[in-house]
Design goal:
The chain is α/β, with parallel strands linked by helices and 181 residues long. It has a single domain, classed as Alpha/Beta hydrolase fold, catalytic domain (Rossmann fold, 3-Layer(aba) Sandwich), CATH 3.40.50. Helix content is 31%, strand content 20%. It has 5 helices and 7 strands. It has a 7-stranded mixed sheet with strand order 1-3-2-4-5-6-7, sandwiched between helices. Helix 3 links the parallel strand 4 and strand 5. Helix 2 crosses helix 3. The radius of gyration is 15 Å and the shape is globular. InterPro entries: AB_hydrolase, AB_hydrolase_1, AB_hydrolase_fold. Pfam families: Abhydrolase_6 (PF12697). One of its GO terms (molecular function) is triacylglycerol lipase activity. It comes from Solirubrobacter pauli. Keywords: Hydrolase.
Length: 181
């Protein structure tokens, strides 16, 4: 696990998507969050065997950080949702990026295995989604924002299924910092 910023600042745990590593969260992006007064941690999600194992792995990271703000992109967002449902006491807030309330396999991504439980999420939630996401089109973000009580939605124009492009960093960092205040 890599960390940025002072350990005394509020902790943010960044979770990447499938096929990526922790380095998909660019060092400069992490440093921008840290400069705004956040203790940022990123780690490599395991290659399986299933979503529950990834939740357990995230809990291990939280054992090191304490209660934290979760920022999950794509698969990392699925892990963050399940963790927030099962262990709400560990989650200070939730930021869901380019994700879905779908299942574990690509064939299930457009299903709703935990959608009935989204209303159980008590952590303040921010949904950030690219307007041009073709893997999880924008209606997935609308579902998350609608089903999670009090969730806010930020749509990034001309953005697909990806980590926030550099041109949106100021907007995304400001939104995350405000959300985790």
């Amino acid at each position: 696990m890599d960390t940025f910023g002072a350990k005394t600042d509020p902790a943010i745990l960044l979770m990447h998507g499938a096929g990526d590593t922790r380095h998909a969260w660019d060092d400069a992006f992490c440093m921008q969050l840290a400069a705004a007064g956040r203790h940022v941690a990123r780690y490599d999600l395991a290659d399986g065997p299933d979503l529950d194992a990834l939740v357990r792995q995230a809990l291990d990271r939280l054992d090191e950080l304490g209660r934290a703000h979760l920022v999950g992109l794509s698969l990392g967002g699925m892990v963050a949702q399940k963790l927030a449902i099962a262990h709400p006491e560990r989650v200070a807030s939730l930021t869901l990026m380019s994700t879905t309330a779908g299942g574990e396999r690509p064939d299930d991504w457009f299903g709703d295995p935990w959608r009935p439980h989204l209303g159980e999420i008590t952590a303040p939630t921010l949904v950030i989604h690219g307007a041009d996401d073709t893997m999880f089109p924008l209606p997935h973000a609308h579902t998350l924002a609608h089903e999670i009580d009090g969730a806010h939605l930020l749509v990034l124009p001309e953005t697909g299924h990806e980590h926030p492009p550099r041109r949106h960093w100021d907007t995304v960092v400001a939104a995350i910092v405000a959300h985790t205040a």
